[in-house]
Amino acid sequence: MPMTSTESLKPVASKSLPLWRAASLRYYQYSFYLKNLFHERIQRVSLNAGFTCPNVDGTAAVGGCVFCDNTSFSPSRRVPRTDITTQLNEGIRRIKLRYKSDRFIAYFQPATNTYAPVEQLRPLFKEALTHPQVVGLAIGTRPDCVADDVLDLLEELAADHFLSVEYGMQTMHNRSLDWMNRAHHHEVTVDAIERSGDRGFEIGVHLILGLPGETNADMLASAREVGRLDVDSVKLHNLYAVKNTPLGEQVARGEVTLMGRDEYVATLVDVLEVLPETIIIERTSGEAPPEYLVGPEWCLNKPAVRTAIDAELQRRDTWQGRLCRSATIEK
Ligand code: SF4
């Protein structure tokens, strides 16, 4: 398929309003972005290509991030998996039970999906792209796992396919990255984003709100940093805890307190206000299967969280980017 440019959605539809605001939205919703880009509903199909993670296998650290249930992809307990095409067919079959989508983004999601030599990555990504219902790829990875030859491969694939790369930034504060046992600092994320620029693929980051010890000002500083970096999208999560993780145990012991819903919603809206209006908001809260969740329970009800976010935006009569200019000046 021909390359799908994202430029058409950036940043302004008219002299005054970006497209999403002209459509009466208060933030640049991912579904709106995809609909404009592909002119139909697009769903993501999650794939497990069997990667592990340098933060689990001892290359960067052991144990993984404090919130990550990495037992399924630790080197000694790799889950049995099927090939990419079979996973796509099965994922598409399941999605079509709920949605009318006919085209899909293949999402390489669990673990670190560029943590292999280019010779191993290329056939995996190409296999997904040859599926007749796949319009592009989304690849989740760590910023310390994109050597230049990997970026060259991604650039090559992006020349004639939609491609987005998601980096786990999480926060700009190195003390928080140390707390979560991330095994890299923010400078590594900045470097990866800079080396990824102008290569034809979209760049996304994940940001966690509610990390222990982070104040509202700290979280807004991370949001402003996202705005400063040349990224296309952000996934915003509340910190949540799942079973079989150090964080799950810390929460159960009362050592870590997770944000309540009202505080999260207020913080998220604060963050939206300082993010540039050109950044696509791919996610506004975290989610985990109920059987694995330790807390907070409120994030199981995504529609209610979404409604609360909309209500807070409306109550303040505010929108994404409203305070972006002043945020830049404050820096
Ligand atoms: S980098 Fe990602 S996959 Fe690796 S331990 Fe952390 S959250 Fe898990």
Structural class: alpha/beta
DSSP E strands, number: 9
Count of individual domains: 2
User: Unreliable segments (pLDDT under 50, ≥5 consecutive)?
Assistant: 1-13, 326-331
Please indicate the percent range of residues in DSSP E strands (runs of 2 or more): 15-25%
Share of residues in helices:
25-40%
Biggest beta sheet attributes: 7 strands, parallel
End-to-end CA span: 42 Å
Q: Which small-molecule species are bound to the chains here?
A: iron/sulfur cluster
Q: Whole-number average pLDDT?
A: 91
Strand order of the largest sheet: 1-2-3-4-5-6-8
Shape category = globular
Radius of gyration, whole Å:
19 Å
Q: What is the helix tally? A: 12
In sequence order, what are the helices and strands, one letter per element? HHEHEHEHEHHEHEEHHEEHH
Give an account of the 3D structure.
The chain has helices at residues 19-22, 30-38, 84-96, 118-129, 148-158, 174-179, 186-196, 216-228, 246-252, 261-274, 302-316, 324-330, and strands at 42-47, 103-108, 134-141, 162-170, 202-209, 233-238, 241-242, 280-283, 293-295. The chain has a seven-stranded parallel β-sheet, with helices on both faces. The protein has a two-stranded antiparallel sheet with strand order 7-9. The chain starts with 18 loop residues before the first helix and ends with a helix. Helix content is 37%, strand content 16%. The chain has twelve helices and nine strands. The longest helix is centred in the C-terminal third of the chain and has 15 residues, at 302-316. It has two domains: 1-24 and 220-323, no CATH class; 40-200, no CATH class. The protein has 331 residues and is α/β, with parallel strands linked by helices. Residues 53, 55-56, 64-65, 68, 70, 111-112, 142, 168 line the site of iron/sulfur cluster (SF4). The site of iron/sulfur cluster (SF4) has 11 residues, from loops.
